[in-house]
UniProtKB/TrEMBL annotation:
UniProt keyword annotations, A-Z: Methyltransferase, Transferase
Catalytic activity, EC: 2.1.1.222, 2.1.1.64
Family assignment from sequence similarity: Belongs to the methyltransferase superfamily.
UniProt domain Methyltransferase type: residue ranges: 31-120
InterPro entries, sorted: Diverse_substrate_MTase (IPR051052), Methyltransf_11 (IPR013216), SAM-dependent_MTases_sf (IPR029063)
GO molecular-function terms, A-Z: 2-polyprenyl-6-hydroxyphenol methylase activity; 3-demethylubiquinol 3-O-methyltransferase activity
Name of the protein in question: Class I SAM-dependent methyltransferase
Keyword Transferase in annotation: yes
Gene source species: Nonomuraea indica
A UniProt-annotated Pfam family: Methyltransf_11
EC supergroup of this enzyme: transferase
Length: 200
């Protein structure tokens, strides 16, 4: 069973519960896209019997494999790795879509889900100024308050900034590629997408 994660906080971890709440009852297989050192994968493993984490960053996968858990960690490119289509009940991704072509990433996640499976994404997008400035300022202020109380854990994975896609563009992509998905923009400079694949 997965080890307990040390108490950590950052803007991405703050929204892990949104991903975990989306896991459907009876889920047997989960995929964590861009798993980094495996924190979310280990959290998923508490309720899902078989969890696979995939990441392109070799040092991060190395750290993940050092953990005392039974998550399968794959070093590879999510877009091209030979996963069986429709083979996961849950596909999760946190702060990863902006590292790849977002449309291709969402389509690949969709195709890897079994009918009735759930896709849960938390991501970063680019603000549009000046319209997004008030929301962004509020998010920065709330983030500072969280850091004062909880500290800030710096993840070891590579970063991409600025995100290539705006929040408005991500909403449109989600609506186009994942019809009926729930897109939400969150205060701490993140968005989320939750979608259940139709059984038809």
């Amino acid at each position: 069973m997965a080890v307990q994660n040390r108490k950590r906080w950052n803007h991405n971890i703050h929204y892990h519960p949104r991903v975990l709440r989306a896991v459907p009852d009876g889920a047997r297989r989960a995929l964590d896209v861009g798993c980094g050192e495996g924190m979310l994968a280990r959290e998923l493993r508490r309720t899902v019997p078989h969890v696979t984490g995939i990441d392109l960053d070799e040092p991060s996968i190395g750290q993940a494999r050092e953990q005392s858990d039974d998550v399968e960690y794959v070093l590879g490119d999510f877009l091209t790795h030979r996963f069986e289509p429709a083979s996961f009940d849950v596909v999760a991704s946190v702060a990863t879509l902006h590292h790849m072509d977002a449309a291709a990433g969402l389509a690949r996640m969709r195709d890897l889900l079994r009918p009735g499976g759930v896709l849960a994404v938390v991501g970063l997008a680019r603000s549009t100024m000046p319209g997004d400035l008030p929301r962004d300022l509020a998010g920065v202020a709330v983030g500072v308050c969280h850091r004062v109380v909880k500290g800030l854990w710096q993840h070891p994975s590579p970063t991409v900034w600025p995100p290539p896609v705006t929040y408005r563009q991500m909403r449109a992509l989600a609506a186009d590629i994942l019809p009926g998905s729930e897109y939400r923009r969150h205060l701490l400079l993140r968005y989320s997408i939750v979608w259940r694949k139709p059984r038809d």
